């Protein structure tokens, strides 16, 4: 199955608890960390929720 690389570019400081939890669910918890995840509708929804704090890298 295809994979997606995502990089955290924004800080979770002053964000809601659910946005922080979504970042942790995506495997991100520090700035500039890169995570490679399976491309699924669930992951796409999580990416959409915190799109302002991450960057999709192919």
Automatic annotation (TrEMBL):
One MF annotation (Gene Ontology) recorded for this entry: structural constituent of ribosome
Domain Large ribosomal subunit protein uL30-like ferredoxin-like fold: 4-54
Gene Ontology annotations for the cellular component aspect, listed alphabetically: large ribosomal subunit
SUPFAM superfamilies assigned to the protein according to its UniProt record, in alphabetical order: Ribosomal protein L30p/L7e (SSF55129)
Highest taxon of the lineage: Bacteria
Span of the signal peptide: none
InterPro entries, alphabetized: Ribo_uL30_ferredoxin-like_sf, Ribosomal_uL30_bac-type, Ribosomal_uL30_ferredoxin-like
Pfam families linked: Ribosomal_L30 (PF00327)
Gene Ontology biological-process annotations: translation
Keywords noted in UniProt: Ribonucleoprotein, Ribosomal protein
HAMAP family assigned: Ribosomal_uL30_B
Summary of subunit composition and partner proteins: Part of the 50S ribosomal subunit.
Similarity field: Belongs to the universal ribosomal protein uL30 family.
Protein's UniProt name: Large ribosomal subunit protein uL30
Species of the source: Sphingomonas taxi
